[in-house]
Amino acid sequence: MKLYDMELSGNCYKVRLLCALLELAYESAPVDLGQGENKTAAFLQLNPRGQLPVLDDGGTVIWDSSAILLYLARRYGGECWLPLDAIAMAEVMQWLSLSQNEILYGLARARAAKKFNRPWDIEQSQALGKQGLRVLEQRLSGHLWLAGERATIADIACYPYVALAPEGGIALDAYPSVRAWLKRVENLPGYIAMPGIGTA
């Protein structure tokens, strides 16, 4: 199994984290976005969108972090990380949608603008990110996990850019239930950190 990866990418980290929690070994293949390695003909054969992460599992190539989480959870995680029940699965998918909307276009873009000078509107991104945090706080004020009564890929999908929100200028002080949930994720057996989170 090979993961085309970038250390500071929250989306790549989602995959690394799930692999660690599932005790899956993989080869890391770093891709230098600054040098345009994601736009080479060879890389575009793997992912025509030119984005990370990309997973190659014995010739099965999957791109997009949510798609990879779904694949790994179903193939290697049984029902632990992605339940088979229709309602429970739909609950997981709701939070994957949040991770690809308010969290990605809000929290992740605010971080990219401040930390990497990406051309996103910081204030607009922060406002959208705070909307996502309010949704998370509402759910987590009465539940330990985002979907069901145990950790699932819903938590893995949302965790990185929420934990990295301060790098985008968004303090988490107003979201005590979210902060408690971050600690629960960090206490999962097999948890690994990335630069900026889980290293204290």
UniProtKB/TrEMBL annotation:
Statement: the UniProt record of this protein carries the keyword Transferase: yes
Organism expressing this protein natively: Methylobacter tundripaludum
Any Pfam family: GST_C
Taxonomic lineage from the root: Bacteria, Pseudomonadati, Pseudomonadota, Gammaproteobacteria, Methylococcales
Domain of life where this protein originates: Bacteria
Domain GST C-terminal: 85-200
Residue intervals of the GST N-terminal domain: 1-80
InterPro entries per record: Glutathione-S-Trfase_C-like (IPR010987), Glutathione-S-Trfase_C_sf (IPR036282), Glutathione_S-Trfase (IPR040079), Glutathione_S-Trfase_N (IPR004045), GST_C (IPR004046), Thioredoxin-like_sf (IPR036249)
GO molecular-function term, one example from the UniProt record: transferase activity
Keywords of the record: Transferase
Protein name per UniProt: Glutathione S-transferase
